[in-house]
Amino acid sequence: TASRLTGEPLWRGTDSASEGSPAGGFAALVRRLDPRAKWLSYTLLSAGVLLQHSAAGLAAATFVTAAVVALTRTPWPRIARFAKPFAWFILISVLVAGIRFGSPQSIWPAGLSFSIGSAWNTFVQLYNLALIMALGVTLSETVPHAEFRRALDYVLTRLPVIRHFAQPISLAAELLLKFIPIIIGEVSRLTMAVKARRPFRQRGARKPIRPSELPALTVPLLLSVMQRADDLSTAMEHRGFSSDVANAASRTNLQFHLADYIAILIGVIWLIISIFLSTLIRS
């Protein structure tokens, strides 16, 4: 457990066969990029996605996002875990946003009507957010915890006010990224355990947790998270973790290479294309 909490990267890795393929080689190249280049590329790609408000722009943003996910070999089930509930949220939000009352041309009671324009605007904003979430999953899959913290330390230590608190902030961010997948896994495991305790006729994987079953889910979850935190504290103590060790590790120099500049250039090109598409369609 201690090794899982202290050394588990965001990216799980691929087998040697996949690394030998062209797509696997490109994915390995992406993972070797400087973490600052990954963050900057993600910011540029996300900014270009947010600029799209037309069908053509959304299609281009979808193509770019799908290409990034495919080339980096990000597991689709990880994206689907967030995409499925968010898709339902988009559908409900679009329907609610389009409902209007008091329309004189409506044949329905109370002037009920549906505004396609309002529904479309809501769909565009939420769909862009969904694409950014998919890019965020790709970023988290290609940035190990250690690289993430090094990059965050590198940036924070160069800010005049925050540099004195860079080490606690980066450590908290790293631990947060470690615990999110652990908590998700614990919730899934405890949910299955709660459903297994139901009577035989009430069992079913698709049946949600009832309010009366929440104590049986939340109490073990809190205890499990506290136990994981205690294991993490023990592991850090046994490994001699201290602020001096963390600062020494974070002072490792980060250098940009040709591949890093190419990744940033790709983000800049996409941003320029997205600005052109947005301006051309509006005009």
| Strand line-up across the major sheet | 1-2
% residues in beta strands: under 5%
Between the first and last Cα atoms, what is the distance in angstroms? 58 Å
Give unreliable regions as ranges.
Answer: 1-20
Descriptive overview:
- It is built from 12 helices and 2 strands.
- It is mainly alpha-helical.
- It has a two-stranded antiparallel ribbon with strand order 1-2.
- The longest helix is centred in the middle third of the chain and has 31 residues, at 166-196.
- The relative contact order is 0.16.
List its traits.
mainly alpha, 1% strand, disordered N terminus, flat, two-stranded antiparallel sheet, 283 residues
